[in-house]
Amino acid sequence: MNFNSPRGTADVLGPDILYRDYIIDTAKKLFQLYSYKEIITPIFEHTEVFTRGIGQYSDIVSKEMYTFQDKKGRSITLRPEGTAPVVRAFIENKLYAQNLPAKLFYIGHMFRYERPQKGRMREFSQLGIEAIGSNDAVTDVEAIWLLNQLFLDLGFKNLRLLVNSIGCLECRKEFLKILEDYLEKIKNGLCSDCNERFGKNTLRIYDCKVEGCKEILKDAPKIEEYVCQTCKVHFARVTGILDRLDIKYEIAQSLVRGFDYYTRTIFEIISKDIDSAQNALGGGGRYDNLVKQFGGPDLPSVGFAIGIERTYMLMKELNIDIKCIKSPKKIYFIRLDDKHDAYLFHILKFFRNKNYICDFNINIKNMSTEIKKAKSSGFDFAVIIGDQEAEDNTITIKNIETFHQDVFRFAEEADKIIEFVEYK
Ligand code: AMP
After folding, report:
1. Those residues with Cβ within 8 angstroms of residue 418's Cβ, 6 or more apart along the chain or in another chain
2. Ligand 1 center to residue 306 CA distance, Å?
3. Is residue 200's pLDDT more than 80?
4. Least buried of 53, 139, 248, 375, by fewest C-beta within 10 Å?
5. DSSP per-residue string spanning 314-360
6. How far is the CA of 80 from the centre of ligand 1 (A)?
7. 94 CA from centroid of ligand 1 (Å)
8. pLDDT at residue 212, rounded to an integer
9. Could you tell me the distance, in angstroms and rounded to a whole number, from the CA of residue 259 to the centre of ligand 1?
10. Which of 120, 207, 260, 278 maximizes ligand 1 atoms within 8 Å of its Cβ, making it the mutation to test the pocket?
């Protein structure tokens, strides 16, 4: 009997819940400002949604899907990504009959049978957007702008935004022929995964993290030299408007992405603060043929997804504070002696920076009078600062309703303090 959580999954508790909520709330607010509306699709789909959509030779479809037969023998897959299901839902619900592009966002769990490591799980969650039904470069720009703004709003500073164009199906076909001819003679030097990819998903070889492959790819032909004039003009419009918006980006010629459906503009946001293959926080791109491929109208589209766990793991590592975003709790600070005022203000600053509503007693009376006063004024918590607290650098927090109370070391237990205020 195995009572541990399955490999690659994790329970989410304590402060991680607050980080999750914070990311989701921040994203939802921002998506609404950009006129995106929420869509919720099932966690599982018919397997073809992914085999057709993502491409049968992609890593995800060939190795990573959780696929099973249901009791009627239908092949079902736990969704590994959000775009193919949203496109399926867009067509099934005839959303193309409305104003286009349809601007949709989703939040949900994804499942990929990957080798688990830090920042890479088998169950994880993403939030993402899809703008379905516009070929215009402004749609690409808006998606990139939104992705960039989301991480700025969350408090990230040290990011790289990578963009590239991988051309349309036509110009890419020609490029792939040239790339495969070039690699044919030297493919023995590529890793076994890249040899697998060769001929099926050759473009992905550009994305390989193995040093030997990177070295071989250095002198290989670059897609930039082969994209057609129309794709070039499209990409120049994207970068031109990004310049006007003063968004800092880098053109990364080796950027390719994991799904077959991407065309033209692709982009990724990565953190400069971590040096690992798991430094990509989010990414996306244009997919001009997917809706048609699913039997819908010919509607070019663009979207992105970010990883929620990866984002909050990094926020915690970088000590990026979350602000209180639910209706803010009210905290009353009771100082028992004015000699502790400097300490009191140090603590007040911490709570006010997190957007809690704070006040403190001006007149120093006894504690029970102050607590009664706090209760009648609608405060949720009382924080008591007496001799002991000031001396030990602690704070005593009391829930005014339940009288539950606890003592925390102020500097070291910030997470626990917030957890207490939010949940106790
Ligand atoms: P993708 O759907 O592969 O383009 O990934 C978009 C984002 O989702 C990545 O940048 C990660 O932040 C996140 N992500 C993808 N795969 C995983 C995974 N296995 N575990 C955790 N996060 C993931």
Report:
1. 15, 18, 354
2. 7
3. yes
4. 248
5. HHHHTTPPPPP-SSPPEEEEEES-GGGHHHHHHHHHHHHHTT-EEEE
6. 10
7. 29
8. 87
9. 12
10. 120
Place of tokens 């293959």: 277
Q: What is the mean pLDDT of residues 311-320?
A: 92
Give, in order, the Cα–Cα distances in Å from 262 to each of 178, 203, 346: 19, 11, 51
Q: For 291, phi and psi rounded to 5 degrees? A: -65, -45
CB-based contacts of 402: which residues, under 8 Å, 6+ apart?
Answer: 424
Q: Are the C-beta atoms of residues 231 and 167 closer than 8 Å to each other?
A: yes
Which atom of ligand 1 lies closest to the CA of 121?
20
Mutate to test the pocket of ligand 1, among 123, 126, 127, 302 (most ligand atoms within 8 A of CB): 126
Q: Distance between CA 424 and CA 404 in Å, rounded?
A: 8
- Crossing angle for the helix pair 15-33 and 137-154, nearest 10 degrees? 150
Question: Is residue 195 helix, strand or coil?
Answer: helix
With beta carbons less than 8 A apart as the criterion, state whether 263 and 287 touch.
yes
Structure tokens at 177: 């022929």
Q: 253 pLDDT exceeds 60?
A: yes
